[in-house]
Predict the structure.
Amino acid sequence: MSHVAYWLTVWLFAVGLYGVVTSRNYVHMIMCLSVVQSSTYVLILEVGYRHGSTAPIFLDVPVGTPAVDPVVQSLVLTDVVVGVVVGALLLSLALQAHKRTGTLDPHDLRTLVG
Amino acid sequence: MTTRARFVLMAAGIAGLAALLVWGTGGLQPFGHGQSKYAAYLNANAVHQRHATNVVSAVTFDYRGFDTLGEEFILFAAVMGVTLLLRSQLDERDDAPRDRAEGRRAVDTSDAVRVAALGLIGPSVLLGLYVVAHGTITPGGGFQGGVVLAAAPLLLYLSGRYLLLKSVHPMHALDLTEGTGAGGFTVVALTGAAVGSAVMANFIGKGQMGSVFSGGTLPVFNVLVGLEVAAGLTLVLYEFLEQTLVVRRS
């Protein structure tokens, strides 16, 4: 039972990947990609978790109180914000592709047009 | 490449990935037990070393500050990329801005949404400023507060008036704010190298623990990142709105 939480992130990753592989619409694909990305956030937060611990904020509790890993939290918080903007970058690529070709289906966009 | 060849290639890749995932996940320490030595060291020492009661903030902008410098420029580059990709193309022209998308039936914003959105603008700005300012002592910081601040222009748009949004948020001010955030971050980071020991070294006095100005360079970085995130997200919002409401195929 001790690894159930980790398998949850594997499931999340697999669901997102399935979506990316089978997607027939770029906007849908970008959403699936963000599901894959979220699975990595959940995984590294889980790695930093420790039973019976509090948040690594020592304003109300004295230093030495068991606390979870601050490094993984720092990694995730910066990447959540950056991930949103990178998602916007991908969406603007999809938008221009739609303007040029009139479709968002990856199957119809196979050939590169200069 | 044929569909069949692509399928075989993907199946092989997924089989390899699945094997690695099962192997790697099985080898992790049991959930909720044990902690890295690095985490234990930071939790025990960061508060006294940096006078920052929020250890996450101390890690983001000091202990692992160099990583954040990189993240900061990913953010900057992505916002620039959106701006560049969504500029008017050769076969497009800018139409007079209007409050509805072309070829779509415009639904009037209901009074309830309008009042709620307008009423939330002030509180969200205040909350955003609070979260940015207290990043060193309580949960929060520049990244989180910046996102809360960026909610204000979105609420202004939700309250129903694109033209009002346009008059409140001129592009030059946003560009300037974003540049100030990214440039200021770099300048403060390099000043650490010039007067201190390394890039992003904490070279300002640590201050009274628990006060807004504690933590040396931490509050400075929080404010600069807050500016950049808020301006960057607003620029992205603005670019997408312009695509719908201003840019037309000529």
